[in-house]
């Protein structure tokens, strides 16, 4: 059965490859391997681990020094990790996309207003309007989060630029083990209808690209697949990223030629 997205036939757009890097040293191999969106994240700190400010600033300095022009993204962690009185909220203006997760928000009566307040505080401190990416988890029950449908709806209401569907736990199944292509296709259609960018991640591997290319998301995100032996806390490898990017291009070309 094909999972081919309806609008993909009319709009065979290019799916971009996002690679999560943990520091400035990983930027060059990521770009050389074919990364098109550079995402800063500390994989030791969970699905959306935030990198330390010093590491982030050094990485931004590297991007300026070497004129890195691809979009930059950053994992901000989970909403529940941000306390309302936190002072240092400034995010470098070079960062385009901010990813926020909602584990432990299930049942909270004020998670939406907490998130709106955080968006406002960050944008006021940064004096910059970032593009927010709401993160829905395929294993949302385990994460005590909300369903991807609810996150999608709230992302629209809060003026987000996109929705990322990822996995919270990296030990209990990969994206395609947890959500069927049909469900992912349905969420993608809903996101598209609401002009949200849609990104897919969650321990993705090269062999997932057959299904993922049919789904034609805007962005595919990887960390584990960029590392030796799929070990997401090891250093990334240019060759692993290149192999992944090559297979993405191959799949996209196959779709174009029917
Ligand atoms: O945003 C994408 C994630 O960093 C993907 O990480 P992962 O491939 O280890 O699940």
TrEMBL record:
Q: Could you tell me the keywords of this UniProt record?
A: Lyase, Schiff base
Enzyme category, top tier: lyase
Enzyme nomenclature, EC number: 4.2.3.153
For this protein, the record's InterPro entries field holds:
4HFCP_synth
Instruction: Provide the function of this protein.
Output: Catalyzes the formation of 4-(hydroxymethyl)-2-furancarboxaldehyde phosphate (4-HFC-P) from two molecules of glyceraldehyde-3-P (GA-3-P).
**What is the top-level taxon of the source organism?**
Bacteria
Which reactions appear under catalytic activity for this entry?
Answer: 2 D-glyceraldehyde 3-phosphate = 4-(hydroxymethyl)-2-furancarboxaldehyde phosphate + phosphate + 2 H2O
The protein's name: (5-formylfuran-3-yl)methyl phosphate synthase
């Amino acid at each position: 059965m094909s999972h081919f997205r309806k609008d993909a036939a009319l709009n065979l757009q290019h799916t971009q490859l996002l690679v999560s890097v943990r520091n400035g040293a990983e930027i060059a191999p990521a770009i050389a391997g074919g990364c098109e969106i550079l995402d800063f994240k500390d994989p030791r700190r969970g699905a959306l681990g935030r990198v330390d400010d010093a590491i982030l600033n050094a990485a931004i300095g590297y991007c300026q020094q070497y004129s890195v022009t691809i979009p930059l993204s950053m994992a901000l962690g989970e909403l529940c990790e941000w306390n309302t009185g936190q002072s240092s909220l400034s995010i470098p203006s070079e960062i385009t996309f901010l990813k926020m997760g909602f584990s432990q928000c299930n049942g909270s009566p004020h998670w939406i207003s907490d998130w709106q307040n955080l968006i406002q505080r960050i944008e006021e401190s940064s004096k910059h309007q970032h593009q927010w990416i709401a993160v829905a988890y395929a294993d949302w029950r385990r994460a005590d989060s909300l369903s991807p449908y609810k996150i999608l709806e709230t992302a629209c209401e809060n003026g987000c630029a996109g929705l990322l569907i990822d996995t919270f736990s990296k030990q209990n199944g990969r994206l395609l083990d947890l959500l069927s292509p049909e469900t992912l296709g349905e969420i993608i259609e809903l996101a598209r209808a609401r002009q949200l960018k849609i990104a897919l991640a969650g321990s993705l591997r090269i062999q997932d690209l057959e299904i993922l290319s049919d789904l034609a998301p805007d962005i595919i995100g990887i960390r584990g697949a960029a590392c030796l032996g799929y070990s997401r806390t090891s250093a990334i490898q240019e060759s692993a990223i290149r192999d992944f990017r090559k297979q993405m291009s191959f799949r996209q070309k196959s779709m174009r030629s029917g």
